[in-house]
Amino acid sequence: MDMVKSAPALKYDGPIDPLDVSRAELYRDDTWQAPFEELREKAPVYRVEGSDFGPYWSVSTYKPIVEAESLPEIFSSEAGGITLADMMPDSDVKMPMFIAMDRPKHTGQRRTVAPAFTPSEMVRMKDDIVRRTAEILDTLEYGKEFDWVDTVSIELTTQMLAILFDFPWEDRRKLTFWSDWAGDIELVKTPELREERLKHMFECGAYFGNLWNQKVGKEPTPDLISMMIHSDAMSEMDQYEFLGNLILLIVGGNDTTRNTMSAIAYGLDLFPDERAKVEADPGLIGNTVQEIIRWQTPLAHMRRTATQDHELGGQMIKAGEKLALWYLSANRDASVFGDNADDIQVDRPNARRHLAFGHGIHRCVGARLAELQVSVLLEEMAKRRMRVNVVGEVERVSACFVHGYRKMPVEISKY
């Protein structure tokens, strides 16, 4: 059945606003820093009238983002979703997910999956994460070029997702494929790509539906599907809500950690003096993890929609208008992180204040697990005295939501 009505492409062909930071090429070419610096300096809450995603407010500094995130009843996740793109703008299909819900429903569904990410679960999972990380690092050949993104970042995060979902190991790369289709907001710009995206999302839903059916009536197990089945808040989800939450957990668990792991290679190569500090003192690894997450910010923005008129940063936001909260920019705010906020500083004293995991009721539920995976990768590299050297052109994600890398040619050496 064709679930998508035909609709015109969403490409905006009016005059380009140089401060429209939703333009994909800024991220593809890694040239987003200058317009954001101008926004932070001159117009921290700025109205963009014309973009591929329609008119929106750009919120680019730390303080108003924290304020907006602290007022979830006024700046809603549910009213318009969490990306600048209206992901299914012409479709009858809605895929609710708890990150794009407001209270009280958000509270119950988040509470259902939260036990998978408690400190005790981190202790339980750590040995396995160490073992799998060590295995992958030990297969790498020194002095031979390979793609860090595919060989290390994607493989480690996809393995972790497969474990969290109790997903068939031999099919785990399907998770990467679905995550890439789900998280790419550029795909909404043509009806054909929207239709193809929907097809892949339904394939994902059907596959997980089978996994769900295999666990119904069975004893609880410590995976996310079993947790949903055995909860009051999520056991009665319809297929679209189930699919929406799956997409959230797949993208949230995959793209974010994957792109931070890639930023370890790229960022430390870009700042060799900082890399030398952490190589000399592995005690800096914990802080380095926070600093790399801050510097990379693997999800560039979250979208909110105003439910009522409200003044933010000296601008009057009208009910129904959408805002992009640019975590990416807030994490470079000099008033919080100093004049060198564009640089990696592995001993930055307040690196942990970053907003890459969000703020308030929607703060990333899997933050501890992401930190653990990235810490273990740095620790295992340190044990092997392994250094990653970027040796060619890096290919980046061409989009303003997932902020990351497609390919990264590297060679490893010993220090």
From TrEMBL:
SUPFAM superfamilies: Cytochrome P450
Protein species of origin: Sphingomonas panacisoli
Superkingdom as given in the UniProt entry: Bacteria
Single Gene Ontology MF annotation: iron ion binding
Classification via Pfam families: p450
PANTHER family to which the protein is assigned, alphabetical: CYTOCHROME P450 YJIB-RELATED, P450, PUTATIVE (EUROFUNG)-RELATED
CDD domains the UniProt entry points to: CYP142-like
Family note: Belongs to the cytochrome P450 family.
Keyword Nucleotide-binding: no
Keyword Nucleus assigned: no
Protein name: Cytochrome P450
Extent of the signal sequence: none
Keywords: Heme, Iron, Metal-binding, Monooxygenase, Oxidoreductase
